Amino acid sequence: MSSIFGVCFRVTTFGESHGHGVGAVVDGCPARLPLSEADLQPQLDRRRPGQSLLTTPRQESDRVSILSGVENGLTLGTPIALLVTNRDPRPEDYGESASVPRPSHADYTYQAKYGIHASSGGGRASARETVGRVAAGAVAEKLLRDWHAVEIVAWVSAVGHVQAHGVDPGCVDRAAVERSPVRCPQGEAAAEMIKAIEEARGEGDSVGGIITCVCRNVPAGWGEPVFDKLSARLAQAMLSIPAVKGFEIGSGFAGTRLRGSVHNDAFVLKNNRLGTQSNHSGGVQGGISNGEPVLFRVAFKPPATIAREQKTVDYAGRSVVLAVKGRHDPCVVPRAVPIVETMAALVLADLALCQRRQRREDEAPPAKPV
Amino acid sequence: MSSIFGVCFRVTTFGESHGHGVGAVVDGCPARLPLSEADLQPQLDRRRPGQSLLTTPRQESDRVSILSGVENGLTLGTPIALLVTNRDPRPEDYGESASVPRPSHADYTYQAKYGIHASSGGGRASARETVGRVAAGAVAEKLLRDWHAVEIVAWVSAVGHVQAHGVDPGCVDRAAVERSPVRCPQGEAAAEMIKAIEEARGEGDSVGGIITCVCRNVPAGWGEPVFDKLSARLAQAMLSIPAVKGFEIGSGFAGTRLRGSVHNDAFVLKNNRLGTQSNHSGGVQGGISNGEPVLFRVAFKPPATIAREQKTVDYAGRSVVLAVKGRHDPCVVPRAVPIVETMAALVLADLALCQRRQRREDEAPPAKPV
Amino acid sequence: MSSIFGVCFRVTTFGESHGHGVGAVVDGCPARLPLSEADLQPQLDRRRPGQSLLTTPRQESDRVSILSGVENGLTLGTPIALLVTNRDPRPEDYGESASVPRPSHADYTYQAKYGIHASSGGGRASARETVGRVAAGAVAEKLLRDWHAVEIVAWVSAVGHVQAHGVDPGCVDRAAVERSPVRCPQGEAAAEMIKAIEEARGEGDSVGGIITCVCRNVPAGWGEPVFDKLSARLAQAMLSIPAVKGFEIGSGFAGTRLRGSVHNDAFVLKNNRLGTQSNHSGGVQGGISNGEPVLFRVAFKPPATIAREQKTVDYAGRSVVLAVKGRHDPCVVPRAVPIVETMAALVLADLALCQRRQRREDEAPPAKPV
Amino acid sequence: MSSIFGVCFRVTTFGESHGHGVGAVVDGCPARLPLSEADLQPQLDRRRPGQSLLTTPRQESDRVSILSGVENGLTLGTPIALLVTNRDPRPEDYGESASVPRPSHADYTYQAKYGIHASSGGGRASARETVGRVAAGAVAEKLLRDWHAVEIVAWVSAVGHVQAHGVDPGCVDRAAVERSPVRCPQGEAAAEMIKAIEEARGEGDSVGGIITCVCRNVPAGWGEPVFDKLSARLAQAMLSIPAVKGFEIGSGFAGTRLRGSVHNDAFVLKNNRLGTQSNHSGGVQGGISNGEPVLFRVAFKPPATIAREQKTVDYAGRSVVLAVKGRHDPCVVPRAVPIVETMAALVLADLALCQRRQRREDEAPPAKPV
After folding, report:
1. Closest in A7, A362, A365 to C362, CB measured
2. Which of A162, A341, B201, D368 could join A192 via S-S bond, C-beta 3.0 to 4.6 A?
3. d(CA D25, CA A68)
4. C-alpha separations of A278 from A250, A370, B29, B55, B312 in Å
5. How far A77 CA lies from chain C's nearest CA (Å)?
């Protein structure tokens, strides 16, 4: 229930931040896909904290092992179990949370839900939980790339009040994103974002941001009406990432202020197939991909864990002043870039496999519409 | 896959806009809940087009019948089948869509997905598909109200550039919302919204908008980490509504510009339980409800179907000028208000039942944290 | 939960025996399959009571309507809703069950589960519940026949102590089965079975029996290890039929007494593919079809509802003598033949669609092993 | 899909016999259940081969580790990941299977399904796959025992032609079962079974058998009509075990020969609740538990892997004589006893949690019927 995602490409994740390990089991990946740890490690490395001064100095080596489902470099069609052992836990940093629920963190709600919560750290609400997702997402990405040439690229498009303009979703790639430690491919904005993050850190504070993501070469026809629309599944996937408070696809909230005559994406002929002139739809119409780039934005709140003192109450309702010690990111969006790509990959791989049902075994590949 | 929603409270919807009927089957509703058609009809009536000059004049009577699962006014615990017969179909209005895919509509993507599409109207991409959801959602709402006193109220908070300010989510009710045909409880904004819609209609155009929704009395503890977070399921639910392009909860996109020290919701003692001073979290922390009002916003694009001529191409790629005739809403948000409430109810009822697993049969109700 | 079956080809059934109607929604049926009511009615007619002296004289017309998902004789890929209106309910026949739980019926367990039960008849435990399944199963059969040439034939192989021998699963067809009112294609056995049923009826009693079913032309490769083995899903499907107490595939219980050297099915070359010399496996090895006929047997207990007086106790524990009036089958196996075929079709259609995931979109159909 | 079981208590298993490890993730186990590796190891030890001369001498230490979901000896409500590292693989023993599909094994069907199969051993079709289930099943058993006092006991009731009579399902316990290496609590039958197994081994052959299982103290009300009947889920669970070809509950196949007047289980008053005089129903009526012991039997075919030479063909259709070397069980039923108990526990734990939905949060525990 709580930790399973997908119908045809199904991922189960597990692991607390301070237990023995975190990981995932991928059930439903087709057989004969070339796969090794080397396919998975790069995104895990990008997710890892301690990569730059902008993120927490905590050192996690995060080496992933494939425990099952792969032999001689090929998937077997059976469940692929992925494990990353935990190191460097330092549980003592979070000791106070036993009696004082940290504001805007999950301490209180986990306690309310389960009648118990992990003695140290945030349990499944911790960012470390995303390790298993990222490992599984790399499997999904391999499938999408090898079988469908799908490309997924996410980048930081806003930090606090600083926004990046002019990034071209048609050609931006991960190399361009990696050039800046803040993972914004627009140089000037990147510099200002770094400044904003440093300022927040300097003040013992944190700052939010926005990640934009594009998925190119998604063929027309992916996404299941009604409840499993591509856009709906992406929304669920993104809101499942810790600290996310918003999602918009295509024109999003700004599109609500447009007239239909402006917003509609007229069809045009592109390379012998139908495409659209504009892309206010964000590549999705009626919940189904239309062959244009799938384009969406994800809003991250400022991290709840800050060094500054906060007035709050403990579980007994007594006023306290909380000053959380330990290692904390002043801004999560740079590290969240591969997580957004991961969740997009999990959604697309699942819907790609679901779409297989529409074709007879003995039928030729579907004619392109046109 | 495509038309089933929920894990414990599971809804299957069916029906095309121009077939024999639309409806839903609710599987998992507990037994002994008082229920009759009279509980379902009001939301269906609110959803129905033709209620005011602001919406399409199409007349649909939309009387719902309970076919199963209820006897002597009580649910039996068995599947509740709900049926609304279609009337007044007029399929001829949509004839041209056979050769020309309407821009930003689902004609093209359904064709790409299925290799076929309903000869008339948009099939499952039509707004009529939502009838089944609304009927099922009314069952969910009855359960939430009777067993948990949950109140769900949605209203139009923006139409085009017009925004409503000052609506109090703590006390706004459906009666206040119903006072205006545009379903905005803030009088001056409502008047301007109506004007904006009339203008768009007068120009053969359409306009988008935003719906805000609050769910009060949701107890702390609902929502399943990791992928079935309350916020993630709400996001999926809202993006599954036709024409929705965005979702934000609590501070949402605006929250990305705040510092953590401002954004964090300090705990305070409220009526002998822990509450929060502010509600930037929108009632959800770590994906689990915290007892504060669940508050979110949903962005609707301007309807794709407009009377104005549009330059586009047909399936063969030939340039055409399209002028869609028929009955169309210049703005969907007033009618979408009960649909947003419906989807919120379906999510909450499902997560409420999922939460039952946490308690031993012979155990007393969980002590409130504090 | 309770009334949904399948993962890729998903069926939701609904309806009590004495409510407004019974039916099903099929979600996941591929588009462009030719389908009409005429494809569904024959199996419903075979399931209907009152067809011969051997079954209850109750008259149910059971005309099925397709409410959605089909247009111009082709499936749209959207949910197919199927409805059969209830007639001739006569609820008064079952009045006594309000205070006395009928032995070996579901009255007591429904009460324990739901704290309520349908005031008349057995609710979802009634044989009438199977109407929705049979309608949905006919859709599955159409898909299997049109796309894969799969043939499913079930017949009565035992009634009480009478067993049919010598029926050839390689060629028996439904016409042969229909020739006898007891649905046993072996003439002498059929005559004795009829006698056994008449005897039981004459004594106000009932008698059990066994149905054997063969599925021919199932290609090798269907069935999902581990928990969704073809054999496991068939077992679930068959045990979900009212009155079923046993399932065996291939050699079944008798195979437990064989040595491995006798039981093993040696491979041989058959029509340019690998086949097996014997078929103790019943067409399934490791949970996956091997291309040989899938062959299994289903045990039905004698119907619980009998005219003879029974000593039992009421809900209050007081001794009573129960004599159930009304219309009852002395033996359910003849009518259950199409239900067994239905459930086999639902399992096979689901696993057939699940198997699609294993092939790349642009790949040729899989080479036959050999 | 293939490796996930359960709805509310959901288990995902993974691992090939010759990969890095085997295990499971349990999602949905309630919080605050006392749990440690010591609760899991006993059933894994019983499942392990090499315990007696009757089973393969292969030595697997099979120490289980809990990777997540448990802290300070209590479950957290989050996924419980369980891992057993593989040792002593000896892949070379199975080398020939690359070119010759072993008769009645899964080599051929895995190849047909996936276009690939594990180079050594049977991959997920191997008995080693059951390690993950047994570990997960022990969690389920802990939950059932602690919260509901449910007792599950299985034993070998037949090996080849030898049958055990007179075992009392009302009181047989695991200690009695463990007294004999063949896990038959009836002494004389046990001795004959051992002889039958030794004979088969001496002849390079194998032999089948039957396991009977009883689940005591299952409260009335578990099991979901229609498709998730307790009996249907048990049937699926048992047929999902390697080598199982049959399942029967209560009177099973023998019950088909009884008259209804004999077969019906009359109600009687037992300890202030309703019980039944006989138990032909096997504790399940209408798919729902009735409070009596749940009693069923599972048929295992003779193991396919035998030392004797077998005439068969290779993948190219050429005649070969196959003589499989390596370590093989002449009879699987003694080792399968804890696996049957495991699968019963997984079904019961899942249906127990599903049943929680029927009760209001603020309601007292349901009154016992009577």
Report:
1. A365
2. A162
3. 14
4. 10, 19, 44, 28, 12
5. 8
Residue B256 lies inside a defined structural domain of this protein: yes
Nearest residue to D128 via CA among D71, D201, D215, D44: D44
Q: Residue B82 CA to chain centroid, in angstroms?
A: 18
CA pair distance C132, C44, nearest whole angstrom:
9
DSSP letter assigned to residue C104: T
- Residue C24 sits in a domain whose CATH number is 3.60.150.10
- Helical (H) or strand (E) element with C14: strand C10-14
Task: Give the C-alpha separation, B146 to B32, whole Å.
Answer: 11
| A240: nearest Cα among A153, A143, A133, A115 | A133
What ipTM does this complex have? 0.95
- Whether D365 is covered by a domain: the verdict is no
Testing the interface with A: which of D65, D76, D83 to mutate, by most A Cβ within 10 A? D76
The answer to whether residue C32 sits within a structural domain is yes
Q: What is the DSSP string of B278-295?
A: S-TTTTEETTEE-SSPEE
Name chain D contacts of A71, Cβ cutoff 8 Å.
16, 19, 118-119
Q: Which among D76, D147, D350, D356 is the top mutation candidate for probing chain B, defined by the most B β-carbons within 10 Å of its own β-carbon?
A: D356
- Tens of pLDDT, residue by residue over A88-139, are 654 445 555 678 999 999 999 999 999 987 765 567 778 889 999 999 999 9
| Chains sharing 3 or more CB pairs under 8 A with chain C | A, B, D
Q: Say how many CA atoms lie within 13 Å of B268 toward its Cβ.
A: 10
What is the predicted pLDDT for the residue at C119?
A: 66
For A109, B110, B136, the CA distances from B263, given in Å and listed in that order, are 18, 42, 36
CA–CA distances in Å: residue C132 to residues A68, C81, C82, C161: 41, 10, 7, 32
Number of domains in chain A: 1
Contacts of A201 in chain B (CB under 8 A): none
What are residue D113's phi and psi, to 5 degrees? Answer: -75, -50
Q: Are C274 and D93 in contact (CB under 8 A)?
A: no
CB contact under 8 A, C124 and D231: no
Nearest CA-CA partner of C73 in C106, C34, C102, C129: C34
Q: Which residues of C268-290 are buried (b: 16+ CB within 10 A; e: fewer)?
A: eeeeeebbbebbbbbbbbbbbbb
Q: Which residue of D has its CA nearest to A67?
A: D20
CA distance B126 to chain D (A): 31
pLDDT of residue D369: 41
Contact (CB<8Å) C23/B77:
no
Cross-strand pairs, C319: C313
Locate the DSSP E strands across chain D: 4-5, 10-14, 21-27, 64-66, 70-71, 74-75, 80-85, 151-159, 162-163, 209-216, 244-249, 267-270, 273-276, 284-285, 288-289, 294-300, 310-313, 319-322
Instruction: Tell me phi and psi for residue B264, to 5 degrees.
Output: -60, 140
Yes or no: say if D267 and D276 are a contact pair by the CB < 8 Å rule.
Answer: yes
Interface contact B78-C2, CB threshold 8 A: yes
The CA–CA distances, whole Å, from C25 to B127, C5, C61, D226 equal: 20, 11, 20, 14
Whether residue C32 contacts residue B111, with contact meaning beta carbons closer than 8 Å, is answered with no
The pTM of this model reads 0.95
> Which chain D residues contact residue C303 at CB under 8 A?
260
Yes or no: say if D359 and C305 are a contact pair by the CB < 8 Å rule: no
> Does D364 reside within a domain?
no
SS3 B348: helix
Residues of chain B with pLDDT under 70: 1, 50-60, 88-97, 119-122, 327, 359-370
pLDDT digits (tens, 9 = 90+) for D187-241: 999 999 999 999 999 999 999 999 999 999 999 999 999 999 999 999 999 999 9
Domain that holds residue B284: 4-358
